[in-house]
Input
Amino acid sequence: MSDLLRQRSATLKDFSGGLNNYWDASSIAENEVPYLINMEFSPNGALVSRPAISETTLPQILSGSTPLYINILGYFTPSGGDRYLIATAGTKTYRLNLDATTPAWTELWASKATGYVQYDNKVVLCKATTGGAYWAVGDAAVTAITTMPALDGLVVYRSRFFGWGVRGTANDTKVYYSDLTAIGTGTSVWDWNVDSVINVGLGDGQSISGILIDYSMIYIFKSASTYSFSFGDLPEEGTLSLIQQGIGAENKNCIANYQNGYVVLHDQTVYRFQNGQFAPLNAQRVNFDPLGGTYQKDFTVSILGDRAIIWFNGSIYALNLLTGTWSQWESATEIAHIFQIPQKANTIKRFETAYGITGSNTTSKWKIYQIDNSPITTNAGETFTCKLRTRIYDFDTPAEWKRLYWWAADLAVTGSVTATVTAIAMSSTVRSWDQISTTTWDILSTRTWDKLLSEDAYVTTERTVDEGSPQRALLKLEHSIRFRRAYFEVYFTCDGTAETSPAQIFSITPMIGVKAKMTKGVA
Output
């Protein structure tokens, strides 16, 4: 290799900025990429394949022979006992003992719960109409709470229940609270009074999305504002304060606990919420692009280990909360909401495991899925394609024509690898319909108005690494192309098993020289 060729070559190996699809691919930072699918930046400096999603052996809930959509509410973990999954399906609420020899769904309540909270080793449920219920292990049936108002969700704070009104009703700006069990008073935490209510921005047109419990107060999220509420002995003597105008939560599924704070989705922005302060996590870096259509879930936020997973109306985005890097996921399961499984008493696992549900309207997908916080799973995982597209490079000489002799990709993969280099073409200047008439509508339908009569020149190469498991290899890709600006792409598949995962990309090294001659239509 000549000294000049070596000088003009570069090793592209810093992907520590993760995904940035907000700005033009030529103007993002050197360590960012505009397209990163099913891969994540890891602390070792490489891009690594995401955890696989697999179907569990847990049964579906059926109405006759037709599957019902399962909506997980949470886990019930009574002291010293088994772990239960609490969910709704159809018009009813169900429980499933995860630690049973053969887990099976059992009807818990003949009503469809809108919210659930654990209190005093009991499952406490609310619904969209008046009346709630609670159940403890060993109870033959639920015990009715006839005075509970219609609620969209429940929390426990200072030995009282707090709940908020159902969205879309006249009470969706109200917070209700229960009595307090006190010896000699005849009152009970299971009792609710119609006058025990807090009006939060009454008549402001914003529904309450959810309530968070903090050490000394509760936070009330509305659709576009956030309040705090604190009290001494009696809630009716408490103080309600507006702490943030313009930022709230999209819905109750868009608030997820992480360490001593929360991750919250409002509009197009994900925030870290801690000590009453919002800090944006994707501003001017990641733009959420909904796929459109109708789904069982619209927007959710889930936590898996140190990862926040955002379901945005069909699209999935993942944020590493330690490195601050984003990526995008694609999955045939269309997994939309993930619930990390509580560990069984006196056990320690190497990594977190979660159950999840789809957001799809396809009934065949209405199952319980599992995802491990590990790039390798022992279950039969899904097959998915890992995709990397780099930023657009001019290698610090935007006015100079260059020639790519070849490039190399340092990978740890097995199976087929597809690699493409694309030179950015100049936009065409169309002066008449006669110029367009030389082509067909089928071809024009694949172009944009900026590039009707020109297209980006590209070269694609396929290589195969056949080692039975991911092995590190430097793949030399014989791509010769002239360009001013270009970007690189690498694609391969894996399924989360040890035979194909973890797949990794360590670096890309293009070998570049000077090319004085111009190629028509390439810039």
